[in-house]
Specification:
11 helices, about 0% strand, mainly alpha, about 280 residues, single chain
Length: about 280
């Protein structure tokens, strides 16, 4: 009897041991696979910014001068169109009528320059999409569907002015001294917060207007807010990362913008294409 039972017990014990060893091996393999996958994900996440920087540099390679020329064109048009009205307001003998004319002209010029800026965005979108891009892209919005693009920028300009309204009130009606100092600081702070919200919520609005002809300008507004979900930190990170470069631009009396601005615009164009899934392989 013992001779019969003992082999059975030994076999059961061996089967249990084999199952235990097999389970342990599977657990070890699972841990190894998880470890490898985690390492690969970390490396991919670590290398992602490097790939983005490399992609932007490749896009600008050989076309940096063209990008600088486009930016310079928009800047010079803005500068020379604004000079007569700046002189008008700077005149100590300017009447109230002249002052009103100045502010009306400033609003109109801001909208015109904003539409030029949309042409600049189109230029960089074409570059990011590996398409042909040229200086004439700056004037694209004036020659094609101009009602759509002017309407879109007027909406964007109105939103921006709402954010700037507390600042304008503080600058014109309150001084940073005396009893009104607290009110002025509160208004400046409110304007800064509102401007930051606009910067973070609507960075893709004009890009959508240029890219999605099937959407109305108001639909683009709501769609831009949807796109920004999950990407707010990326937008903040990009803007913060350019602060040092902008400080250098100020120290160079604005000359550095010729190099920084194309890089900034191309960065946001690539970010937009990445968010919408249009980024070329």
């Amino acid at each position: 009897m013992i001779c019969v039972v003992l082999p059975v017990i030994l076999c059961n014990h061996m089967n249990t041991s084999i199952c235990y060893i097999s389970d342990n091996c599977q657990s070890i393999n699972l841990n190894i696979n998880l470890s490898i996958n985690s390492k690969l994900l970390f490396q991919e996440k670590y290398n992602e910014p490097k790939k983005e920087i490399q992609r932007i540099r490749e896009n600008l390679n050989g076309r940096y001068r063209l990008s600088m020329s486009v930016f310079l064109t928009v800047t010079l048009i803005n500068l020379f169109s604004d000079l007569p009205f700046t002189y008008l307001l700077g005149n100590v003998y300017a009447t109230k009528v002249q002052t009103v004319i100045y502010y009306i002209a400033e609003v109109l010029l801001s909208i015109v320059v904003g539409v030029l800026q949309m042409g600049l965005i189109r230029f960089h979108l074409n570059m990011a999409r590996k398409k042909e891009c040229r200086i004439s892209d700056v004037f694209y919005c004036f020659m094609n569907h101009s009602n759509r693009y002017f309407g879109a920028y007027i909406i964007y300009y109105a939103i921006s002015m709402i954010a700037k309204a507390p600042f304008l009130v503080a600058r014109n009606f309150f001084k940073l001294s005396g009893d009104a100092m607290g009110i002025a600081i509160a208004l400046y702070t409110a304007s800064a917060v509102l401007s930051f919200i606009v910067l973070v919520l609507f960075p893709f609005y004009l890009y959508l207007v240029l890219s999605r002809d099937d959407l109305s300008v108001f639909a683009c507004l709501t769609h831009a807010i949807k796109l920004i979900r999950g990407n707010i930190l990326r937008v903040i990170y990009i803007n913060v990362s350019f602060i040092g470069m902008l400080v250098l631009c100020v120290l160079s009396l604005g000359i550095g913008l010729l190099w920084v601005e194309p890089y900034y615009e191309q960065t946001f164009a690539n970010l937009f294409l990445d968010v919408t899934g249009e980024l070329p392989a």
